[in-house]
Design goal:
Layout lengths: L1 H32 L11 H5 L6 H18 L1 H14 L3 H18 L9 E5 L6 E8 L4 H6 L3 E7 L7 E7 L4 E2 L4 H9 L7 H9 L2
Helix pairs in contact: 1-3, 3-4
Length: 208
């Protein structure tokens, strides 16, 4: 039974990551393949070739993103974007969602941005318990002025699903930066600590 269990676990370690990766990639490809519906019926691959080719939607999606960025980057495109945003800002519910998503995307993908690029260690949910978090902003604006303290914005993801979590404002001196990449931090969260970078944690905990 011991050998049987060992071999079964070894097999799972091979097939489970492969299966999960395949499912995720398949879902992404299927989702992006829906962009082919933007084409007229007569110009879709099924009509021209007589059969479906998986992945063509990925190419079309990338082309659409590239062309959109190319247009939006010039003067005429920027004016169109401003006109579109002016129209969206007049719709009560849509303007709030659009503005929040746009600010989040700009923050995450800005070349000079620092959000989600630092892994930190914070005491959460109480003193004496430590968890990984991501520094999202080192300035808290009016909140910092109201409290009279230097605060930082931190996102504390849940485990093993980091898409959910908590946004908290903490005093800067209570946040310990780690010499750990975001990828390593996510791996540690997803594996619930089974995969970790002990060097960064040890260095952070050694600091006063």
């Amino acid at each position: 039974m011991t050998y049987l269990r060992r071999y079964l676990v070894a097999g799972l370690l091979v097939w489970l990551p492969l299966g999960a990766s395949y499912l995720v990639v398949s879902l992404l490809v299927d989702w992006m393949d829906r962009s082919l519906l933007l084409l007229p019926q007569a110009y879709r691959p099924e009509s021209l070739l007589g059969f479906h080719i998986p992945g063509l939607g990925v190419v079309l999606s990338l082309v659409i993103l590239f062309v959109t960025g190319l247009v939006a980057a010039n003067l005429f495109g920027r004016r169109l974007v401003k006109l579109w945003e002016a129209m969206v800002s007049r719709i009560p519910l849509v303007r709030s969602v659009y503005s929040a998503v746009k600010q989040l995307v700009e923050t995450m993908f800005a070349d000079n941005g620092r959000s989600f690029r630092k892994v930190v260690l914070v005491e959460f949910p109480r003193r004496g318990l430590w968890t990984l978090a991501f520094l999202t902003n080192e300035e808290s604006g009016p909140i910092q002025e109201a409290l009279g303290r230097e605060l930082v914005s931190v996102y504390i993801p849940t485990t093993p699903n980091p898409t959910g979590g908590y946004f908290v404002l903490l005093p800067k001196e209570e946040v310990r930066e780690l010499e750990m990449s975001v990828d390593d931090g996510l791996k540690m969260l997803l594996s619930m600590g089974a995969v970790n970078s002990t060097s960064g944690l040890a260095e952070a905990q050694a600091k006063p």
